[in-house]
Amino acid sequence: MNRNASMPLSDGMTVVDGHVHVYPHVPVETALDIGFRNLEQLGGGRRDCMPMLLVADPPGVHLAALLREAASSHKPIVPEWAIRSTSEAYSFLALRGDQRLVLVLGQQLATAEKLEVLSFGAAEVVLNGASIDETLAAIERSGGTGIVPWGVGKWSGRRGRLIERVLAEKRGDKFFLGDNGGRPKAWPVPQFALAQKLGIRVLRGTDPLPLTCDERRIASFGFGLAYAVDTEHPLESLLGILSDPRTQVLPLGRPVSVAQAIANQFRLRFAPVSADSA
User: Do 13 and 43 touch, CB atoms closer than 8 A?
Assistant: First the structure.
């Protein structure tokens, strides 16, 4: 069986894109449409599939604030989608007819070493520009979850050794590495093997870039769980499932090709549509 393709699971299912950005040039409803459609495809079209996006706002982007306004207002702020709050301040349900999409909102942070960190569930805003150790410590103090995602050219040399040192020192159920749909399959990442050896999970996500039409990749690369998350406490529920060493995290979707990865990096440097860099 090809585990990178859509596959059926038993006893309910949650399908997650663990690394999403919605840039200002992308209408929110468009991102939700694409995310729901692609996650549904990854889940094989099952009716008991719960789709879930972990969305990290880059600096200057305030999607979380918009969704809070949409959840508390009767105005059609997000066309076609009704936004409902959950019991978590940072999580929402997007509803359209009988369709449900779980949204967990967080921050995209850049460290002093120019590494990326995603923060979810933190009770306070975490500041940009601190060291990776300080950034992860601030997320932990605020009760949040930190994900350190792979990035082109960011995990080699000195910074690669820094990631390895963080892995050796960091433990707990609220720390993960992140794989990236922009990483071609043939691109090796030794830190992923080290994480597996140390019992640290690697969560897959698309990481769409601030490029025209790259939002179409949202939810084309992620992971599946043979459990349905609690929609009132989606992040807490997800973390509980992932903390069980018996839980299988199933890779779903396909990354970009080598040619597309090179083209994306060229466009990112010469034709971005946002001042924010991924």
Answer: yes
- 104 contact partners, CB below 8 Å, separation of at least 6: 52, 53, 54, 55, 88, 90, 91, 120, 121, 234, 235, 238
Residue pLDDT, tens place only, 199-235: 999 999 999 999 999 999 999 999 999 998 999 999 9
164-190 burial string, b = 16+ CB within 10 Å, else e? Answer: eebbeebeeebbbbbbbbbbeeeeebe
Does 6 score more than 50 pLDDT?
A: no
| DSSP3 helix / strand / coil % (the chain, rounded to 5) | 30, 25, 45
Q: State residue 276's pLDDT score.
A: 45
> What does the alpha-carbon distance between residue 35 and residue 49 come to, in Å, rounded to a whole number?
13
Query: Which of 220, 208, 56, 68 lies closest to 146 in space, CA to CA?
Result: 56
| Other residues' Cβ atoms within 10 Å of the Cβ of residue 162 | 17
As a whole number of angstroms, the distance between CA 227 and CA 207 comes to 24
Q: Which amino acid is at 237?
A: S
210 vs 185: CA distance, rounded Å: 22
Give the whole-angstrom CA distance, residue 128 versus residue 115: 11
State yes or no: pLDDT of 5 exceeds 70: no
